[in-house]
Specification:
- This protein has 10 helices and 6 strands, in the order αααααβαβαββαβαβα.
- It is α/β, with parallel strands linked by helices.
- A 6-stranded parallel sheet has the order 1-6-5-2-3-4, sandwiched between helices.
């Protein structure tokens, strides 16, 4: 993807180390302490696996907080697709700092900035990892933008619903969350992403899900993006975060949707017409020959229309 960003004319910068502050503005200290220390604690267990993989989860999270490494792994890890290695904490922090750096660039006057975040983040809740995600980079970027912007919108165009992002802002009215994704009725993350999830409390009406029938292509996806853009305009935000998944591509290994390579440029053009300071945060996108081309298509389309 780095080659794809360069092909779109992007200038590559290594982010600064912004410390825990921007991350702790989104994630609980209990969870961050867990992420930082769990691999070392896990290795002390008899017969421990090389990576932390939970084997038990609480039926509800209203009970006691476990003291053991095994119990905490189940408490803070939603599934087995977010194993924690010795390098996970450092990698997740640098990924989040990339998003912070992009937000700082936009707050300094750049019309848009792209953060090539790995690992991704939109499945991470305030205190739960899941789906290859540990720190919610898009949420971190949005919260950073909130230091200058009264209202921020997050538009997630990943193949999968951004359940962690939704969860973080579900009861808030200062951040509008929208997600265009494959219908979760038989697709990850299964339990979130339905159209009737509209927020709660002060956040009621500030969450919008636009699930799509599986194998939907460019035109259907663009109709949903157009609807999302109308909602964003009604919210009148001062800044935008685009949670960019490239896994909606027709040739992506998951095969959930059928967006074409030129389709990503059309999606970008539609979003760019909002004329908002925009942080583009990389989310999904699995290995296929066209992965870099799809990123080039999106970034080029966004720049052409902005």
């Amino acid at each position: 993807m780095l080659a794809g960003a360069r092909a779109a004319g992007s200038t590559v910068h290594r982010p600064d180390n912004y410390g825990l502050g921007p991350i702790a503005a989104v994630h609980s200290p209990e969870y961050l302490e867990f992420l930082q220390n769990i691999h070392q604690r896990w290795q002390l267990l008899p017969g421990a696996s090389a990576e932390v993989v939970p084997n038990i989860h609480p039926f509800t999270r209203a009970g006691s907080y476990p003291a053991s490494a095994v119990g905490q792994a189940g408490y803070h890890m939603a599934d087995t697709s977010c194993p924690i290695s010795a390098q996970t904490w450092e990698s997740a922090c640098w990924s989040a700092w990339s998003a912070v750096g992009a937000a700082e660039s936009v707050m300094s006057g750049a019309p848009a900035a792209y953060a090539l975040c790995r690992p991704p983040g939109h499945h991470a809740f305030a205190d739960v990892a899941g789906g290859f995600c540990f720190i919610n980079n898009s949420a971190v970027a949005a919260q950073r933008l909130r230091t200058k912007a009264a209202r921020v919108a997050i538009l997630d165009v990943d193949l999968h619903h951004g359940n962690g992002t939704q969860g973080i802002f579900y009861a808030r009215r200062d951040v509008l969350t929208l997600s265009v994704h494959a219908d979760p009725v038989n697709f990850y993350p299964f339990f979130w992403g339905y159209a009737n999830e509209r927020g709660e409390g002060a956040g009621l009406g500030y969450n919008c899900n636009l699930p799509l029938q599986h194998k939907s292509g460019d035109d259907v996806f663009l109709e949903a993006v157009a609807a999302a853009c109308k909602r964003i305009e009604a919210f009148a935000p001062e800044a935008l975060v685009v949670a960019l998944g490239l896994d909606a591509f027709a040739g992506d290994p998951f095969g959930g949707l059928c967006v074409s390579t030129p389709g990503f440029a059309r999606i970008a053009e539609a979003i760019a017409k909002l004329r908002l300071p925009t942080v583009i945060v990389q989310e999904g996108g699995y290995l296929c020959d066209e992965l870099g081309d799809n990123l080039t298509s999106f970034l080029t389309g966004f720049g052409a229309a902005a």
